[in-house]
Amino acid sequence: MTIGIEMGRTQAGAPVTLDLEELLSTRLLVQGNSGSGKSHLLRRLMEQSAPWVQQVVVDPEGDFVTLADRHGHLVIDAAAHSEAMLVRAADRVRRHRVSVVLNLEGVEVEAQLRCAAAFLNGLFDADRDAWTPVMVVVDEAQLFAPAMGGDASDEARRASLGAMTNLMCRGRKRGLAGVIATQRLAKLAKNVAAEASNFMMGRTFLDIDMARAADLLGMERRQAESFRDLGRGHFVALGPALSRRPIALHVGTVETATRSAGPALVPPPSLPSAEEARELILAAPEEPAAPPPRRAPRPPPSDILAELSRFSPAAPVPPRARTAEEEAGRRRICEESLRQVLDGEGEAFRPASLLYQDFLVRLRIREVEDPPGLPEFRRMLADARAGIAPEVAEGEEWQAAVSRAEALPEDARGVFLLLARAALDGLPCPDDASIARAYGTHSVGRARRLLAWLEERNALVLREVRGQGRVAAVVGLGWETAPGPAA
């Protein structure tokens, strides 16, 4: 089971969901004229996915800093820090898995490009141990990856464009999933836009932009003019994470608000007379007055690295004590959910981490509090793949096998326990296909190499009985399987 984010609904009222795991592998491009609802769409995506994935937002206008109020994002004010500091902060962001908003509001255009390039390069250059999934959202991406030169220097433009290219072209292997929004595809560098496999196209008016949007969505040219008729917050979506065919949707509501001026009308104040207006605007003051500041003065620079080091999630609430009856019911639900996970087609060959996500979703549906952690789930998974009944798993004899399995690598424990269970019950030695399935692979050759490795580690002893088959003995426990065919 995958994580589905409801982005909105179709005109018929059907929900449109976005496969979050698929999005992290295939990236997303959003296009729409100013006022079409791009920022609203991005806010909906980030709010709905915040509990599931770490987020980094490159925010040129300060629209997304309100995410900190509800979802705990750390706001990094780029104007208060050097480029070297931003590089170090990006590295710590990845290592500590903190969701952040890089606020570029009030920074000159060239400095915005340099700061964004430094921060994105810091994310990209993090050590391999920190390559966990991160959704990197870049609003107004045409500023950071322009199709042609602008007001900024060539050096700043090249640095920013290189960082954006790394994000979209090479970031997937490092866990970086780019989500970029732009007003016009024509303004965005082609090598950046071309790497997205998911598209959400909003209202646009220029013929060239409508034609290009229709081409990306696989629509006929005569359908391109429909983009002029899209309302605010209405988009046409296509991609492996969204839909295999173009689908129109209206983006759902959001929980946080933008700080920018909205489209609501604000009537001007009433003045008693034109003379009073003249006095307010044109009357010369007695002394020249300094122009009012554009905004309140910024606080002194803070130490981002210190803030990241001090960051810690809220302390978990300790689970309440369960009665024996409640514990038995919880264990039964966990066992049923694990069986449902493993009954799916091909589930035996999926990584344990993905199976664990499916397992947690099923427990959440059943309203199970305090679900098992990943280490406990791996032990349950190994027992289930080995065919161990719960009552046998609690026995002293089986616990001896489990303790010996703890010394083996995680991926080898399931195979060892499978053979140990067969030896404990005196069953025939499992064939290579069964061992490969417990190992999570279709390759019989890999299963045989694992058996040879277990024998080298002195965990098993394998021998052939002429005319009967293979026998596996568990070292240290004195258990031995009956002869069984290898193939």
From TrEMBL:
Entry keyword annotation includes ATP-binding: yes
Domain called AAA+ ATPase: residue spans: 24-312
InterPro entries in the cross-refs: AAA+_ATPase (IPR003593), ATPase_Atu1862_pred (IPR014588), HerA-like (IPR008571), HerA_central (IPR002789), P-loop_NTPase (IPR027417)
Ranges of biased composition (kind: Pro residues): 288-302
Region (Disordered) residue spans: 285-328
Pfam families named among the record's database cross-references: DUF87
GO MF assignments: ATP binding
Sorted UniProt keywords: ATP-binding, Nucleotide-binding
PANTHER family: HELICASE MJ1565-RELATED
Name of the protein this chain belongs to: ATP-binding protein
Origin species: Sabulicella glaciei
Lineage: Bacteria, Pseudomonadati, Pseudomonadota, Alphaproteobacteria, Acetobacterales
